[in-house]
Amino acid sequence: AEYESALEELHNAEKILEQRHAAIKTPSKSAPAQKDITLEVIFKKAVSNPKADGRTSQPPKAPAPSHQKRNQPATAKAACDALQRRQLTKQLAYRAIGGCDDAIMAFEELNAHYRLKARHPGTNDIPDLILNFEGVHVSASQLRTVERTWLSRVNAASKLRLLADRKLLGREDHEQILLQLFPETIKDLLDPEYFHIFITGLGTEGILTASEAKSIICLGMTHEEFTAGARWTGVSRSSHKNARYDASVLRIFAIPHQSHHRSTNLSAHPLTAPQTDLSHHLRILVEAAVYEQKFWKGYFFPNARSLLHSFYQAWSATQQGLPTPPHLTEYQRGWKYHEARLLQRGFLICNLLSSFESGTLTDYGIVRAVRGSLIRLSGQGRWDVENLSTYLYSRVVDSGLPVSLVPQILALHPENDQVFANQTLKTQVLKELGDQAETFRKEEEQRLREIEMSVSTFESLKKKEMGRWERIKFKALGWKARKEVVVPFDPF
Fold this sequence. Notes:
19 helices; 3 domains; single chain; two-stranded antiparallel sheet; 57% helix
């Protein structure tokens, strides 16, 4: 139905163009015939009639086009053929992701053809590749940007599958990327800024390289492309791609000083939200700080992390009963319980980011897990208290994260907000979390002692098995003889 409606529209457009061209070419009988004026005549008139200041007038230059013209099909048939190629390529890409051997073979042939063309640029000796798409023969030279984008998406999905098979990419992360590249419904798509944060985190963690992350971000499907379907021909210049950076829309972020009566139905957009709602503004600031965004939800943040730190220091001084320093007076606010918890979460995650940037914390996966669980955002992985505890204790060894910090992270989990509002329950939960951390620390110390004892036992048994001359050689070489190169086991 989509193809037939597009075909009918293109036929109608072609008829209108033919009528206009006929009207332009047919001269009007009542209009007087105009003489052709050559460029030479124009220059002669300009020289013979100089201006008052002695300058001769020049013919006006044609204004430069405001934007580069997009290549459009010349005829309705060419437009229909292009529409058909886009539709067939999209269907073939989805089949390749589904495991269709014929579709996978077609994309492999295209990859081989384009690699060969890249190795021998400027030569015409390489024959064009002809593919059979459901009885329709399409040559590789006819494929344009949209069709090659589908090829790139299939190639990216193939690389991601290899990473997932080797357990380098998590199953949930793999599925999230595939949904953005090959969505089934529009609900599967993340907003571009959320998808950018998600892929950037995988790149920072080292799961993806910088070039792979940048490529996948560009390949992500947008709501406009999904809605347009086969009619999609690429991003138009009229679609404000950088609207979130538009200076006429952005505002410098600031949290109001007082919170008046709060409405129960808050607007999701900051520009229409109540201007005196501290919780809504604080949420925007914390998200921008922990997800390292300069432009976020209609606001510009010169340094969101530093601003959040100032608000936290002012709140901390008030909690401790200390006088607020003069430079922090403007950051004092009447935070409520849930707002104070949110402020603490943001401050803790910012400290984790600073530790990672300084090299103290070496595992960025911990930052992603804590950030997604405490400050929840669409597309970011999140865990409940129990699963987050298991994850942190499984990664804390040799990661640079102090074991004593794990109970603080778990205490700030949103699931504990209601529990920590009760002082008795808060004390009980903190004790349980502290005991859990202490038990883990003792078990880890015991494990290290057992490893050390095993190594010393192995060396003593090795010495007993040595002959007389082997012992002399061992003592002469010293530590060099003890050091053995052991190849790490790779199950994949």
